[in-house]
Specification:
Number of strands: 0
Structural class: mainly alpha
Order of helices and strands: HHHHHHHHH
Helix content: over 70%
Shape: elongated
Number of helices: 9
Strand content: under 5%
Largest sheet: none
């Protein structure tokens, strides 16, 4: 693990400082829109990805995966190799990502003597489904967050004109600095989500970036109750 958690904490503290300085330059009104927009984006992205990733999986993927899984286990002459089955149906996947789901799926296949559609359904729901739902949730979260950020940036740029009003200019910038500290906090949450997503996609297999390192970071630990991917 080494110094990786400490390096992450130093980078995140720098993020807060840079965010505050930028918010000073942007002013209170523009920075306020940025802060509110970022928080709203996080809430919307979290809610939509959590609620609709399962819906999208059931609508677009589940039935097809059940058919493919049933075909695979019908052609299996020996005991079902869950790792090989998952890769045969979905392609190569990170081993680290599959370990937890394979452990659950083993319960569903331990007493199988004759392959059935019900068995295929159980395998999809315990092994393949959770993996795909995870990826759908990550993708939806990232897309929605990016769209919300784009809207926020446009609105914030429109409000920067306030900085040119002589009476309000300095006070607006000073107040923006303190709002920037809040923006820095939101940026840390965003970075926490991004780092967690990278760990998920790589199957927790990177030596320099994995869940143990993220958990050891004091700054990231404060986001564990908010980050839907960390914990």
């Amino acid at each position: 693990m080494g110094y990786a958690p400490m390096i992450i904490d130093i980078v995140l503290l720098a993020v807060i400082l840079v965010s505050a300085i930028k918010a000073y330059a942007d002013g209170f009104f523009a920075s306020g829109v940025t802060l509110v927009g970022d928080i709203a984006g996080l809430i919307i992205a979290w809610f939509v990805s959590k609620k609709y990733s399962v819906v999208l999986f059931n609508y677009f993927f589940r039935d097809n995966l059940i058919d493919k899984t049933f075909e695979h286990i019908q052609n299996s002459t020996n005991a079902i190799d869950l790792q090989a089955m998952a890769e045969g149906v979905m392609g190569k996947l990170p081993k680290g990502l599959m370990q937890e789901f394979i452990a659950k799926a083993q319960v569903a296949v331990q007493d199988i003597t004759t392959p059935t559609v019900e068995t295929a359904s159980a395998l999809v729901d315990t092994l393949l489904g959770p993996i795909i739902i995870t990826f759908i949730g990550v993708l939806m979260f990232a897309i929605i967050l990016a769209l919300c950020k784009l809207i926020t940036v446009v609105l914030a740029n429109l409000l920067k004109i306030v900085n040119h009003i002589p009476v309000l200019g300095f006070a607006n910038r000073l107040a923006g600095f303190f709002v920037g500290i809040g923006i820095g906090g939101v940026n840390i949450i965003l970075l926490s989500c991004l780092l967690s997503i990278i760990v998920i996609i790589t199957g927790n297999s990177l030596g320099f970036l994995n869940m143990d390192i993220l958990a050891a970071s004091k700054m990231l630990a404060m986001t564990s109750g908010i980050n839907p991917f960390l914990g």
